[in-house]
Amino acid sequence: MIQRIQSLYLLGSFILIGIMFFFPLAELIDTAGQTYEFLYRGIPALTEGAPAIFIAYPVAILLSVIALVSLITIFLFKKRMIQIRLTIFNMVCMLGAMGLIYYSINSQAGELNAIASYSIINAFPLVALILSYLALRGIGKDEAMIRSMDRIR
After folding, report:
1. Is the pLDDT of residue 115 over 60?
2. What is the C-alpha to C-alpha distance for residues 119 and 26, in angstroms, rounded to an integer?
């Protein structure tokens, strides 16, 4: 039911997390001037056929879970309590993703002796967190309205 405002908030959250799969999260520049791009899956190899410099499977898995839960939550509009629980779980995962991304980038910057230059894409989990909170408030209002209607009968 896409006409509900909380469904639009959840869709916006899904889109923001989905965008993170297509753009680099940070650029690492070492002392020699070599530039590395930190993607959702880590730092890929600089040359074709070489092994990846850093693999960030936890970041990729966590972002995938967040996107999947956001998408599933949109279609659970008839089960508001489950929708509330999944939204809270998703918000906790977003906080974890922000911390994990920050930790992964900084650990690789230290390992490569590089300076990290963060992308604006790193703010997307925070914006998605705010949208999820707004969706949670909307779902709560719907649940309160339904419960008040049941009391009247």
Report:
1. yes
2. 5
pLDDT of amino acid 3: 64
- How far apart CA 31 and CA 114 sit, in angstroms, is 6
DSSP code per residue over the chain: -TTSHHHHHHHHHHHHHHHTTTS-SEEEEETT--EEEEBTTEE--SSTTSPPSEE-HHHHHHHHHHHHHHHHHHT-TT-HHHHHHHHHHHHHHHHHHHHHHHHHHHHHHHHTTEEEEE-GGGGHHHHHHHHHHHHHHHHHHHHHHHHHHHHH-
pLDDT tens-digit readout, 84-94: 999 999 999 99
CA pseudo-torsion sign 16, 98, 118, 57: negative
Rounded Cα distance, 115 and 27, in Å:
8
Give the pTM. Answer: 0.86
pLDDT band at 64 (very low <50, low <70, confident <90, very high): very high
> What's the pLDDT at 89?
96
31, 113 Cβ separation under 8 angstroms: yes
